[in-house]
Sequence to fold (140 residues):
Amino acid sequence: MEFIPAGEIIGEAHRVRTVGLRKSPHLPDGDYTFVDMYCIDPDCDCRKTMIQVMRNGIHVGTINFGWESPEFYRKWMGGDEDESMPDLHGATIDITSPNRVSPQGMLSFFHALLDEKWITLIKSHYSAVKARLAKKTMQK
Ligand SMILES: [Zn+2]
Fold:
């Protein structure tokens, strides 16, 4: 699965979220930008995003976020109850995350910001990316 920023596929329609953070006990001050990236396989319906967290322009961490239920991902992965399966539901730190700031701090910051509005935006980016990819595939 290859992930690329939504902006590279849907352009102007993509809105990246930036939040200024001051005096947090867990993270250094700075402007944190969340660049949501999506899988570019048009036939894959993984329903997740990989979010690159940038602090003052430097990539400090990577978060995986799956908005569907745990049951959805279990079925999608093939349905067995294997406990060793990665948890795709909810937010986790990606294995490739550079962790230049506290990963736990980053996850709690993400959770604090996560609301229905943001989830809706992420879902709409996902659909827009998949729709654009499907169109590209048909044109080939
Ligand atoms: Zn995928």
Residues 91 and 111 are 8 Å apart (CA to CA). The pocket of zinc ion is lined by residues 1, 39, 41, 44, 46 (CB under 6 Å). The chain has one domain: 3-139. Strands lie at 3-5, 17-21, 30-39, 48-55, 58-66, 90-93.
